[in-house]
Amino acid sequence: MSQKNEFTLQQLLERVNSRRRSGDAGSDRVRTITARIVGDLFRAIDDLDVSADEFWAASDWLSRLGASGQMGLITAGLGFDRLLDIRDDEADRAAGRATGTPRAIEGPLYIAGAPLSRYEARVDEEGEQIPGEVMVMEGVVRDAQGRPVAGALVDVWHANEKGRYSHFDPDQKEFALRRRIETDAQGRYRFRSYLPPGYEIPPVGPTAELFQALGRHGNRPAHIHFLIAAPGQRVLTTQVNLPGDTFIDDDFAFATRDGLVVTLEPGTPAAGYESLGISAPFTRVQFDFTMQVARDEEESKPLARMARAVG
Ligand SMILES: [Fe+2]
Questions:
Q1: CA of 230 to the centre of ligand 1 (A)
Q2: How far is the CA of 293 from the centre of ligand 1 (A)?
């Protein structure tokens, strides 16, 4: 009797990866990537002797991960976000492109459409009690030749004093600690806020579960996010880190970069900063951003990662 439907692992894999409905072109790229990933997982299950119970526990975890909205924490925590930056850096080097300010991961907590102002803004909420050390961050956005970029859009966002981000935290106002600033004719921006703390992944949920099983912490050091866009310039997604944080070289998302740790200038006199409501010495942070020349229009579109991927 011929055996049409009894397979070895390898025969099953070949069938899974070669099935096609006749006349349906599908996507060769999706087929290639899926075949590779399924093949790698088949081999991992076989090599590591993964039991059925372990497999279904993992399947359940993935279902809960998707439902929890924490996929972006897992991609960062397992190094995928930084991997993409490393690959972009390598591609830049290979192509001989001037790199400018180092890129750093966007993270999953960006929200488009924050209030826009020209040259300067208060990123913290005016009139509320200030929950941290008053900070003004300022600098110039430059192109690869060092020339100021006028009209660049500097999108800035950071966590509150509890390490939480507006939109994802129901206790904060819409767009709290999120602003867009358009650089002036000299390419300058400046904003007032307070020095944010670091933060930790939610203590309960699929991310915490995996990290507990891995014996890892889920802490990020204090940082401020930026997404900067200007016509003809490649969008720059980056972060700056505040010095002195316990986790600065032990970020669970592996996002700290040596060129992005800023210097704090405490005790900076208030003169010249009155328009930001400052009347006492404060902590200044000076940081210039250098952008890359966009290779095409697509690279200069001011899109966040998901909008770029699915838009
Ligand atoms: Fe963040």
A1: 23
A2: 26
Q: Work out how many domains the chain is built from and give that number.
A: 1
Ligand 1 centroid vs 91 CA: distance in angstroms?
25
Domain extent for 169: 96-310
Residue 267 lies in a domain: yes
Q: Which residue has the tokens 């070949």?
A: 14
Residue 281 Cα to ligand 1 middle (Å): 27
Query: CA dist 78 to 74, 106, 210, 282, Å?
Result: 6, 15, 10, 37
Return the CATH number at 240.
2.60.130.10
Q: How far does residue 202's CA lie from ligand 1's centre (Å)?
A: 13
What separation in Å is there between the alpha carbon of 205 and the centre of ligand 1? 18
Structural domain includes residue 144: yes
**Cα 164 to middle of ligand 1, angstroms:** 9
Nearby residues of 187 by Cβ (< 8 Å), 6 or more positions away: 140, 141, 142, 147, 148, 149, 150, 152
* Torsion sign over Cα 272, 125, 127, 134: negative
Residues whose beta carbons lie less than 5 angstroms from ion ligand 1: 107
DSSP string, 90-115: HHHHHHT----SPP----S---S---
**224 alpha carbon to ligand 1 midpoint, in Å?**
7
98 CA from centroid of ligand 1 (Å): 26
| Per-position pLDDT tens, the chain of length 311 | 567 899 999 999 999 999 888 887 899 999 999 999 999 999 999 999 999 999 999 999 999 999 999 999 999 999 999 999 999 999 999 999 988 999 999 999 999 999 999 999 999 987 777 788 999 999 999 999 999 999 999 999 999 999 999 999 999 999 999 999 999 999 999 999 999 999 999 999 999 999 999 999 999 999 999 999 999 999 999 999 999 999 999 999 999 999 999 999 999 999 999 999 999 999 999 999 999 999 999 999 999 999 999 87
